[in-house]
Amino acid sequence: MEIWINPACSKCRSAVSLLDAEGAEYTVRRYLEDVPSPGEIRAVLGRLGLEPWDITRTQEADAKELGLKDWPRAADARERWITALAEHPKLIQRPIITAEDGTAVVGRTDEAVRDALEREA
After folding, report:
1. Sheet with 104-106, edge to edge strand ranges
2. Would you call 12 a catalytic residue per the annotation?
3. Predicted confidence (pLDDT) per residue in 22-54, tens digit
4. pLDDT of 121 above 90
5. Judging by DSSP bridges, how do beta strands 2-5 and 96-98 pair with one another?
6. Active-site residue (options: 1, 9, 32, 112)
7. Do 36 and 4 meet the contact criterion of CB atoms below 8 Å apart?
């Protein structure tokens, strides 16, 4: 299991605390320092079953600068969104937990983190 975190994020710290409390084995990826490639973002999206706009933090300053609210949310714009996430990792929703079963969750709630833990069992 891997968890993509921003240590400054309270949701990330909460998810890590819950994983620790449950004795989970996981790897931390500080995605602002170890930025995911477009290919890694595509892979995580596949595991999540989501589109790039579904995991984009549209209220961030970078999102407003890019005008993301006006970008089309359609298949032909998918690569543009993925490129934006790779070039501006602050825009990636967090934390993202990838499970050994090949799935992933956005662990913003304790329930979502527990869901990821159940996928490990």
Report:
1. 27-30, 2-5, 96-98, 104-106
2. no
3. 999 999 999 999 999 999 999 999 999 999 999
4. no
5. antiparallel
6. 9
7. yes
